[in-house]
């Protein structure tokens, strides 16, 4: 099979997956999330009418548990399909995701933007979003840090996004050889299909840096 055919097959598989993911995300947002919120408000109402302190404390614990679950479901819904991607653009979608990410994992992401945002197609925006998403989740899981940075640079002919942290870091080649980070290959593949590139560098004790580059055609679009 030629490289062109392999890329077409990969693109078809990813697009099919995204359609199913979108459907599940909408069900989470419009169904489960709404039901959990109704349960949360109901528990708050019950708690206010309970006179016995130990039952009131137990109800408060249940209320806090439901509230945490709502946040997790919202994050999962956005992870699956960022609905703001097409309505507000790539930068806004990532910033919205980062707010939920920080409230869930406690990792603060410092955001910096340079240049004027350009129009990017849904397919390519989603590829960039997924790549950034994977990089951020890896920080939460493995970096052991409370802070990281994400910078957008909108240039004349390209979009460059850099995500870096000063966490634990790791040996990249060893991780690839031992198949410890399957997400690395997925990040690179997504950006290749989108016509861009993803480069990851890391070293033990010095953190990790992910650089995403997406070419932008003239006349303001991709």
From TrEMBL:
Residues 126-217 form the Histidine kinase/HSP90-like ATPase domain. One of its GO terms (molecular function) is ATP binding. Residues 22-85 form the Signal transduction histidine kinase subgroup 3 dimerisation and phosphoacceptor domain. Its EC number is 2.7.13.3. It catalyses: ATP + protein L-histidine = ADP + protein N-phospho-L-histidine. GO terms for cellular component: membrane. It comes from the Bacteria. InterPro entries: HATPase_C_sf, HATPase_dom, Sensor_HK_TwoCompSys, Sig_transdc_His_kin_sub3_dim/P. Keywords: ATP-binding, Kinase, Nucleotide-binding, Phosphoprotein, Transferase, Two-component regulatory system. This is histidine kinase. It comes from Aquibacillus halophilus.
């Amino acid at each position: 099979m030629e490289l062109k055919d392999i890329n077409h097959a990969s693109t078809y598989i990813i697009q099919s997956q995204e359609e199913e993911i979108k459907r599940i995300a909408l069900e989470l947002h419009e169904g489960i999330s709404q039901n959990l919120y109704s349960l949360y408000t109901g528990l708050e109402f019950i708690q206010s009418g309970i006179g016995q302190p130990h039952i009131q404390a137990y109800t408060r614990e249940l209320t806090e548990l439901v509230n945490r679950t709502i946040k997790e479901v919202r994050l999962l819904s956005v992870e699956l399909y960022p609905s703001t991607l097409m309505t507000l653009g790539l930068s806004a979608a990532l910033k919205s995701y980062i707010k939920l990410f920080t409230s869930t994992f406690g990792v603060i992401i410092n955001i910096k933007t340079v240049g004027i945002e350009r129009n990017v197609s849904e397919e390519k925006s989603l590829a960039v979003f997924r790549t950034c998403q994977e990089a951020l989740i890896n920080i939460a899981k493995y970096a052991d840090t409370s802070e990281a940075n994400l910078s957008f640079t909108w240039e004349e002919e390209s979009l460059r996004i850099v995500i870096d942290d000063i966490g634990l870091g790791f040996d990249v080649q060893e991780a690839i050889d031992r198949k410890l980070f399957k997400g690395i290959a997925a990040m690179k593949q997504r950006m290749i299909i989108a016509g861009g590139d993803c480069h990851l560098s890391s070293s033990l004790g010095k953190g990790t840096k992910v650089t995403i580059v997406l070419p932008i055609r003239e006349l303001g679009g991709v």
